Prior knowledge:
The protein has a seven-stranded parallel β-sheet with strand order 3-2-1-4-5-6-7, sandwiched between helices. By secondary structure, the protein is of the alpha/beta class. Strand 5 (about 125-130), helix 5 (about 145-165) and strand 6 (about 170-175) form a beta-alpha-beta unit. It is globular and about 50 Å long. The chain has helices at about 10-25, 35-40, 60-70, 95-120, 145-165, 185-190, 200-215, 220-235, 235-259, and strands spanning about 5, 25-30, 50-55, 75-80, 125-130, 170-175, 215-220.
Amino acid sequence: MATAVITGASSGIGEKIAELLAEKGYNLVLAARRADRLASFADRLAVKTEIVCADLSDAENCYALYDRVKDRDVEILVNNAGFGAFGEFSELDLERETKMINLNVAAVHILTKLFLKDFVKKNRGHILNVASAAGFMPGGPLLAAYYATKAYVLSLSRGINRELKHSGSRVRVSALCPGPVRTEFNIVAGGEFAAKGISVDKAAKAAVCGMLKGQEIIVPGGALKFGRFFAKILPDCLLLSFAYRFQKRKIDSRAENTE
Length: 259
């Protein structure tokens, strides 16, 4: 049976996508930093599962992951690993932001490039890059660097997928663009989304279904599709102002709760 490689698979969307692909019979290679979480999760799966404990913000670990599995029948790559950094850009720790950019952008770019070459040779395969609805915005005050990373992932995925279509390839690259999802993201980012998130199950099911259908952009949730329509017609200055107020309320609320 074919193999699916999933990064950021120890929790949240990545973990649920792994469960869904296991149900479809795919063997799995699960990569994340937390070996204990991966091992516990792998024990519950009924398919052949290999765990890879690696920090993919280090480019060398991305190449090592590819080298480890390149000779297998890999048919799916899910680039899910990533995190956010919430707060004023001038005050955020630069080292942490750089690590985020390396994971959210460089790791996605490297792994997509390496696996895509093999998929193109075989003329089959799916790559799912987990972007965000943030990628549709002109910017994200108080999550500025995070929004920028997701805009990169969305733009890269769409560009590659169009190249594949024009070349006649059967390989597809999809970008998952959810709004807020109820995962550990808020804890890691150091803040909260101002809107109620959708469930991990809903996001993951939309992701797997859309990916296997070859959808270029996957937007789970009717409300978000509606919001994306208005984002296309509203001026950027209004969207930026709204985004700032949207997130600023959470900073104020968090400060009040800690007093």
